[in-house]
Amino acid sequence: MLSRKGLIPEDYLLTRLAEDVLQPKFKTKQRKARFVAKSGTCNVAHTNIREQGRFLQDVFTTLVDLKWLHTLLIFTMSFLCSWLLFGMIWWLIAFAHGDLDAKGDDFVPCVTDIHSFSSAFLFSIEVQVTIGFGGRVITEECVSAIVILILQNIVGLVINAIMLGCIFMKTAQANRRAETLIFSKHAVITVRNNKLCFIFRLGDLRKSMIISATVHVQVVRKTVTKEGEIVPLDQIDIQMDNPVGTNSIFLVSPLIISHVIDKNSPLYDLSAADLQHEDIEVIVVLEGVVETTGITTQARTSYLSEEILWGQRFVPTVSEEDGMYAVDYSKFGNTVKVATPGCSARALDEAGGMESFRLKESSGASVRRRIRHQNTKEL
Fold this sequence. Notes:
With 379 residues, the protein is of the alpha+beta class.
């Protein structure tokens, strides 16, 4: 992969190359299957679909969703089958009119120079792809031949239109643009503006911007309702603080997106110790319009509980050099440890907030210094 060749730093991941993430060397606990992979693909298998005919009702979308090999195979078979079908029809017209038998100079055939099925097949190809070598020409002798000529031209145009449309849509698919939308390898939980926050970083490697980009975040966990109903994939929306203060973000440089863990957050009762045992998954969805094509694109990733670092902060990546702002992507995923309470946001609020935590920390530090000082004197 590109990261192994030194072309892409290991500290961040392209959304489609995230399967190369090195797993932790320590043994992790057994957990449920991941809902969304780091690359953004959904780990969902649709089984026991009885009404398969629904896919044929939207043939164009089905063709676009197919793999390139399958799409090209279908188009190749479509052309071959149409050429063979109309070649057979041209051969039958010539056989019914008697064009295959040797006639005098006064005999006018429906199509000139058709003597066998091979020549009829070649004429079918010439008609549908408008090659026109000039050796075989339709005449005014047979009305049925004129009707078949019009019908084959229409069928050929329809096949060409579908083929060109599918190829254009497959080459201009929005997920290709998502290859250069990147997310930090880890998310962090740290203190920001005296509040515990869930934070991750995202960026765009291209200079062409994503217009009206928005970020949606959900927590996926297994929950049990008050009635005892088990919801294996309960998707809970969490509110993100937009760094630019509007509904959409201005993704011209890497941005740090944060979520304040307040009483309305599903992470409100989560502490640093609980994070190691909690079976949660945070899904991040970045959506916007590609500036060059006008197509809506979407990039996704997710963070498991072991991929959320407690008590760390992202280092800055933007600096001013020679009158311009430079982004150092080698620091995209780098974090540093900072003083952060290990308790949950609920416990922190009940204890009086960050001010009380800092006072306790300072008093505890002074007590520890006095103890060390006394021990030094005794020695």
